[in-house]
Design a protein that fits this description.
2 domains, 1 helix, single chain
């Protein structure tokens, strides 16, 4: 009899635990917004990157603990970022893992239902000037550009011409592997800095629209390219 009562007691305790675990979650959903831009210190404009994987925004809530876990948000190719599902609290926010020197960390307060805007100014490893991407008959594109290094300690690595008829979001991870119309990574030497680089690409197809841009890279921990704007050319 005692054994039966013991078993019944265990069953009752288990059922009680299940009932507790099924309580309704009364917490409000996160509705705070974090938004802003990463500004290129050289041009004064939002930094140009690729999509996806151009750079990330690192953030962590420190309202309860300064040892909170870092979380990340991908930035957009036009240099902006936006997150609309954050809990109210105090956050540390940093622009990281782009083709630029990591930004300083900023501390912001996000309120429930509110919008917190934070802008970062960063130094890109490389900048472009005198960029020209033009059609040359009958099936070629002439690309001219000059690269300037902004971080003396960063060793130059390579440059690429990205071209695709498949997507305007051209970059290392999207449409840039069409060997007939793109130029593979080419070593960017010290003596090429500040000097116009001219590349001609062939085998473009009549009737197609192509999206073309230049990328150049210094050795950096994120292994990412600085990019020019995308140029659209109709053949």
């Amino acid at each position: 009899m005692k054994k039966i009562l013991f078993i019944l007691n265990i069953i009752c305790m288990s059922l009680a635990g299940l009932l507790v675990s099924c309580d309704i979650d009364n917490y409000d959903e996160p509705d705070g917004t974090l938004t802003g831009s990463v500004i290129d210190a050289v041009t004064g404009n939002p930094i140009i990157t690729e999509q996806p994987n151009g750079y990330r925004i690192r953030y962590k809530e420190i309202s309860w603990s300064e040892s909170a876990t870092n979380q990340y948000l991908w930035g957009k190719p036009d240099g902006t970022f936006n997150h609309t599902k954050l809990f109210a609290g105090t956050y540390e926010v940093t622009a990281v893992e782009g083709a630029f020197i990591q930004s300083e960390t900023q501390t912001i307060d996000i309120k429930s239902g509110g919008v917190a805007t934070v802008n970062f100014t960063v130094t890109p490893y490389l900048s472009f000037s005198n960029v020209s991407i033009v059609k040359e008959a009958p099936a070629s594109v002439k690309v001219t550009f000059t690269v300037t290094r902004n971080v003396a300690s960063a060793a130059t690595q390579d440059y690429r011409i990205f071209a695709s008829s498949k997507t305007p979001y051209i970059g290392t991870n999207t449409g840039g592997s069409e060997s007939d119309i793109s130029k593979a990574a080419t070593t960017l030497t010290e003596d090429m800095l500040g000097t116009p680089i001219v590349v001609t690409l062939d085998n473009y197809v009549a009737g197609k629209t192509y999206y073309i841009r230049v990328g150049a890279r210094c050795a950096n921990t994120s292994n990412r390219y600085n990019m020019t704007e995308v140029v659209k050319i109709q053949f």
